[in-house]
What we know:
Layout: E1 3-6, E2 9-15, H1 17-34, E3 41-46, H2 50-57, E4 65-70, E5 97-105, H3 109-119, E6 125-133, E7 145-151, E8 157-158, E9 174-177
Parallel strand pairs: 3-4, 3-5, 5-6, 6-7
Antiparallel strand pairs: 1-2, 2-9, 8-9
Helix pairs in contact: 1-2
Bound molecules: inosinic acid (IMP).
Amino acid sequence: MHKIKVEDREFEIFLENDTISKRIRLLGIQINVDYENKCPLFIGILNGSFLFMADLIKEIKIPCEIAFMRVASYEGASSSGRVKELIGLPDNIEGRDIIIVEDIVDTGLTLTHIVKTIKEKNPSSLKVASLLLKPAALKQEIEELYYVGFEISNEFVVGYGLDYNGLGRNLTDIYRATEA
Ligand code: IMP
């Protein structure tokens, strides 16, 4: 088993880049069909979504726009439950078809906050694409969470944009912590 160390923690290979690419290709096809004759605005949530956004957008063949915004940073390996202010909310949301692009939905608190804030700007439609989802950790249903790459169990993952204490975002594959 391919193991690595990020800071003080040991991780093992979980999702190889090839597996991730194949799944993203399918999500792209689905979005191209669902948004035919539309021009969605993809809003990536920094920092974690930057690689997912880059790969997803290359699969999008319909006209589209891209923006990024950021929320509170995630400290350590467990969600603090605190949601800070949203920074860099695009000003052209009204009347647009919005697709929020997230790296991972854990408790869902961050996403719930983002969805609420974007809805207040009266988009024509709003959906979320998240590469990963931990269904067992989800605290409330998020109706808008429509495109999910992989449902994973309640474990800490790193790589492909996801970090552990700021490190590991550059890893091409996704790894999971070998112990909690
Ligand atoms: P939530 O508000 O609990 O859903 O947390 C969402 C955010 O926490 C994500 O956008 C990530 O930045 C971070 N996060 C949650 N789980 C993990 C993980 O397993 N690895 C790395 N970051 C994570």
